[in-house]
Amino acid sequence: MRKPWNRTTWSPIEGGRAEIVHDRQKAEALYPPTLKAWVPGDRETPGLTLIRIHTSSAEYWDGPASTVGLALGVLRAAITKNPDNDPIDHGTLEL
User: Fold this and answer.
1) H helix or E strand, kind and range, residue 28
2) For residue 34, is pLDDT > 70?
């Protein structure tokens, strides 16, 4: 399994429906101590909100967090003309 601190992952979600979730137990489960670097205070911080998204599919991209690592991987794929050497994983999740 890849370590989250050396990877960059993002996923656009297109279409669907979103709703605000008021679930203190879920908020506590999803609020790691490291989040305090970006959200001062605690789970009671005003404006901190859980959002549930209902959709049928989403795409994801997962690649090295380091710009240098990303550039070297893309360059390796281009030089070898082998897209399997591209360090970015991409896929679609059917939900």
Assistant:
1) helix 24-30
2) yes
